[in-house]
Design brief:
The protein has about 60 residues and is α+β, with helices and mostly antiparallel strands. Helices cover about 60% and strands about 10% of the residues. It contains two helices and two strands, in the order E-E-H-H.
Length: about 60
Amino acid sequence: MEDIRIGCIQCGHEFAFTVAEQRAYRDRGFSSPRRCPECRKKKAKMGASAQNLKDRTRKDEEAYW
């Protein structure tokens, strides 16, 4: 096994998918990443924000009705 270069689907930059990362992903049953580490962090941060907003909206609706 050797490091693989992957193009990020979000920003287009290439990033290295190291042998250690490949093993960790394989052991956990994950597929290869499609986003670079920077875009993965941004996506996770936005996902958390969107989830918080969704939860907050739901609670507000329940309180209203």
